[in-house]
Amino acid sequence: MVCLGNICRSPLAEGILKSKLPYDHFKVDSAGTAAYHIGNPPDKRSIAVAAQNGIDISHQKARKFSQDDFDHFDKIFVMDHSNLDNIMQMALTPDDLNKVALLLGEDEVPDPYYGNENGFKKVFDLIDRACDQLSEELQKMQS
Ligand code: 4NP
After folding, report:
1. Which of 15, 20, 35, 76 is surrounded by the most beta carbons within 10 Å?
2. H or E segment at 101?
3. Residues 93, 94, 97, CA angle at the centre, nearest 5°?
4. pLDDT tens-digit profile of 72-84?
5. CB atoms within 10 A of CB 96
């Protein structure tokens, strides 16, 4: 799961998808395309909205997406078109490129950083719905 800072959207996406998958069969992680927040915990507002929904993301630490991630993950979901452009530019092979998709298909998960708590609730709901579908697809692929 990839966004810009790895403190607002993608930590939520990591926590939400993990909560819907059997933990011993899937590796779910998140990263940012920017280095601003490396090592920081998620934004307090993301931690709060996750906690309101029974998910603890407070232990996560921001990291920057790296070239190696293409080799370590089968799917790379990005939150918006800017993330998509940045990650696609890092792809070295057609296989790498094929792994990358917008989490919402054609739509974006809007950046809530400069907004208020309502924006974080909206982001939670968008990601939660997408991960319902995604977790079913991933478990079907695996069985
Ligand atoms: P995220 O949100 O990409 O969902 O983690 C942002 C976090 C930080 C900044 C921008 C977006 N920032 O400019 O520091």
Report:
1. 15
2. strand 100-102
3. 95
4. 999 999 999 999 9
5. 17
Q: Residue 40's beta-bridge partner residues? A: none
Whether residue 111 lies in the annotated active site: yes
Q: Which of 43, 69, 80, 111 is catalytic?
A: 111
Nearest-5° angle of CA 130, CA 131, CA 135?
130
At 71, the amino acid letter reads D
The distance from CA 57 to its chain's CA centroid, rounded to whole angstroms, is 12
Question: CA 109, 100, 11, 6 torsion: positive or negative?
Answer: negative
- One-letter amino acid of 56: D
pLDDT in tens, 93-143: 999 999 999 999 999 999 999 999 999 999 999 999 999 999 999 999 887
pTM > 0.90: yes or no: yes
Delineate the domains of the chain, giving CATH numbers in brackets.
2-142 (3.40.50.2300)
Q: Using a 6 Å cutoff on CB, does residue 6 contact ligand 1?
A: yes
Instruction: Please measure the distance between the N-terminal and C-terminal CA atoms of the chain and give it in whole angstroms.
Output: 22
- Check pLDDT > 80 for residue 88: yes
Is 9 annotated as catalytic? yes
Q: Are 45 and 16 in contact (CB under 8 A)?
A: no
Q: Which pLDDT score is estimated for 142?
A: 80
